[in-house]
Amino acid sequence: MTGTSTAATRLRGAAGHADRWVVLVVLCLSLLLVALDATVLHVAVPAVTEDLRPSAEGLLWIVDAYPLVCAALLILFGTLGDRIGRRRVLLSGYALFGIASVLAATADTAAVLIGARALLGVGGAMIMPATLSILRQVFPDRRERALAIGVWTAVAAVGAATGPVIGGFLVQHYWWGSVFLINVPLMAVILPVARLLLPESRGGGDGPWDVSGALMAAAGILGVVLGIKRLGGEGAGMDPFALLPLLAGAAVLVLFVRRQKRRAYPLVDITMFSRPAFTTAVGCIVLAMLALVGLELIAVQYLQLVLDLTPLETGLRLLPLTFAAMAAGATGSYTLRRVGPRRMVGWGFVLTAGSVLLLTLMGQHDRPVLLTAGFVLLGFGLQSTLFGAYESMLSEAPAERAGGAAAIGETSYQLGAGMGIALLGSVMNAAYAPGLAGLHEQGVPAAAGAAASRSLGEAYQVAGELGGPAGEALRSTARHAFVGGLHVTLLVSAGLLLLGALAAVRLPRLMECAQREHDAGPPPAAPVPVPAQHRPAPVQNLAAPVVQEQGVPAQGPAGRHRPRPGLREPAEAGGPGRAGQ
């Protein structure tokens, strides 16, 4: 029976050799929409504010509802997909994402738009871990999987980076609701195609699904991400209202981890974090996203407020970063095989730190060549880091836990993004405000100076209200203070990236599958029959049929060759035994 199953598995794998690349295209298109929706609204905020007139807190929730809900529910839906089927969860996420997009595009109040953005977050949480876990199943061979992950991470970078460009174009030519409405026809196409092409897969399915644990994980992550975002707000400092959700969320996550350790069938396999490569890869994803999102936010402010570019021009200036990320993703599989995860992630961090230091040469005037060079190095370095980290993390996780591992990776992605905005935004504010301390000597009232110290955008508004020499002095001083704060923030970011390079030394030096194949030598073309006179003793002969059923051919007389544990033929490399690593 086992031999028959093995043969059927080989036939299915051979027949689906070309189909899995079509599956990859479908997964990447769905990921592109989710990643694009995370940033496409940023340039539409002024139009939304003018139309719906939300309060300051309401506007904050319009922007943050999507990433907050998405981050909170990733583990819930990632592990649910392991139980009821990843394809089923993914298709449900497609449908919900399309419905929520219609609601967001037609919202006539801020409350409706916030609710629609929250529903988009639920749909995104259903889609993101499912795409990565299905990718883990469809590409059992680690070398092919590395290429697929390279394409997957490049698409995520393209979606996030092109969001402002597409959003700026749509808002400029149509209305703000169009940034959501573009999702509907795309989802209408992807849903039936995915239903036809995507394979269904599940995890081990042992024991009951831990519903209470899933809710605890959602509540804990929501509190942590919300607290981080509030700490990164203007003037938040050590505000107890910002610290409260952070501390409460951290406490709930501690209880969640203890609960998982006690359960016979845990929701998330906490033992994965005992593997240095897995833990290090997750930490590297957090650090890389911290740098990417924080630097992109500050770069957008610099391009629009200091260089006075339009939203569309700002998005176009960021395109070199996108193209560099695509190049790094396309060549990532080859690079990973040649240099290994440790060097790829480590040198990716070093290259990114170098690009950040290069960008400290930015000043009051536009230097397009410098900016382009810095963004190209930044995109290539960070994409190389994310590629190596995601590949290592996913390959360390057992196939039956792919949904949970993917959810952990996506949660670390979201946590890194939130921490980047909070940490680098706080550094920026702390370095910017002291530069406005002497404004009273230039005829600027104290109240106006205090308001201008909150942000460069508010300083421009106050300067416009003051007018005359005082307004011009405020505008010039605020611009210089912002550029000085930008340089400090870039230096802090470079230091964090170099810490990531040091942490990468815990990753494997080489791809394990390549090393094992080199040690094992080329596999034999066919099983070699063993003559009767050379067969082993009866006790040893009892194991022979079992070895052959597992797909390991006999190698002549007993004792001449023993199969390596965990090393299987390519057709069976995706089994739950973590083969192919």
From TrEMBL:
Cellular component GO terms held in the UniProt record: plasma membrane
GO molecular function, one term: transmembrane transporter activity
Compositional bias per record (Pro residues), positions renumbered to this chain: 521-530
Membrane-spanning segments: 21-47, 59-77, 89-107, 113-135, 147-169, 175-197, 209-228, 240-257, 277-298, 318-337, 344-363, 369-390, 411-432, 481-505
Residue ranges, annotated region (Disordered): 516-581
Superkingdom in the source lineage: Bacteria
Entry keyword annotation includes Lipid metabolism: no
Any Pfam family matching the protein: MFS_1
UniProt-annotated location(s): Cell membrane
InterPro entries with a match to the protein in the record: MFS, MFS_dom, MFS_trans_sf
Keywords: Antibiotic resistance, Cell membrane, Membrane, Transmembrane, Transmembrane helix, Transport
Primary site of residence: membrane
Membrane topology: Multi-pass membrane protein
Name of this protein: MFS transporter
